[in-house]
Design goal:
Structural class of chain A: mainly beta
Helix content of chain B: under 10%
Radius of gyration of chain A: 13 Å
Largest sheet of chain A: 6 strands, mixed
Strand content of chain B: over 45%
Number of strands of chain A: 12
Strand content of chain A: over 45%
Largest interface: A-B, 21 and 22 residues
Structural class of chain B: mainly beta
Number of helices of chain B: 0
Helix content of chain A: under 10%
Distance between the termini of chain A: 41 Å
Order of helices and strands of chain B: EEEEEEEEEEE
Radius of gyration of chain B: 13 Å
Oligomer: heterodimer
Number of strands of chain B: 11
Shape of chain A: globular
Chain lengths: 110, 112
């Protein structure tokens, strides 16, 4: 079964600074990878997805991720964060069901 | 386009009772999946329905069951509730397996 590992449980960052959230996946023949964000008291919102094609994936709210097959990674980045980016972020892979990482809590401070 | 709708948003039950949660998927989506989210175990897959048939099931006891109706709406039932069933239950819909899943805001179930 496919799985993902998020390497950071908490990431504090100052407003307007860049942020990177790290995610490694277990190798498999077909890989579908996703990043979701969860704001307090809400469900999960899809940020971006990698199904195939270009390894640089752009998502909503200025986020992007790079699929790296040799390093089995799918790290999420944003060049300049806002207070409103404070949330929990989940990396996930899909092989009939979503398998999620443990999540990374991002706290943006002014 | 309306998103995934889950009702109710909050529920309080006592041990031994049963509960039914409802999920209305995005129009045109035939796959509905359910997940349990807890601080200790994170997000765990419960089951997935497609065209009224359960296609996949996670590692949960038989007290957790579900069904899907012809209009793709889905319900999840938990019988003989235990304290450990306290969680946020999330429903997600998609066009089919391996397609991006879209989540509702969840039902927060508290067991007293």
């Amino acid at each position: 079964a496919q799985s993902v590992t998020q390497l950071d449980s908490q990431v504090p960052v100052f407003e307007e600074a860049p942020v990177e959230l790290r995610c490694n996946y277990s190798s498999s023949v077909s890989v579908y990878l996703f990043w979701y964000v969860q704001y307090p008291n809400q469900g999960l919102q899809l940020l971006l997805k990698y199904l195939s094609g270009s390894t640089l994936v752009k998502g909503i709210n200025g986020f992007e991720a790079e699929f790296n097959k040799s390093q089995t990674s799918f790290h999420l980045r944003k060049p300049s964060v806002h207070i409103s980016d404070t949330a929990e972020y989940f990396c996930a892979t899909n092989d009939y069901k979503l398998s999620f990482g443990a999540g990374t809590t991002v706290t943006v401070r002014a | 386009k309306a998103g995934v709708t889950q009702t109710p948003r909050y529920l309080i039950k006592t041990r031994g009772q049963q509960v039914t949660l409802s999920c209305s998927p995005i129009s045109g989506h035939r796959s509905v999946s359910w997940y349990q989210q807890t601080p200790g175990q994170g997000l765990q897959f419960l089951f997935e329905y497609f065209s009224e048939t359960q296609r996949n099931k996670g590692n949960f006891p038989g007290r957790f069951s579900g069904r899907q109706f012809s209009n793709s709406r889905s319900e999840m039932n938990v019988s003989t509730l235990e304290l450990g069933d306290s969680a946020l239950y999330l429903c997600a819909s998609s066009l089919d397996a391996n397609q991006p899943q879209h989540f509702g805001d969840g039902t927060r179930l508290s067991i007293l």
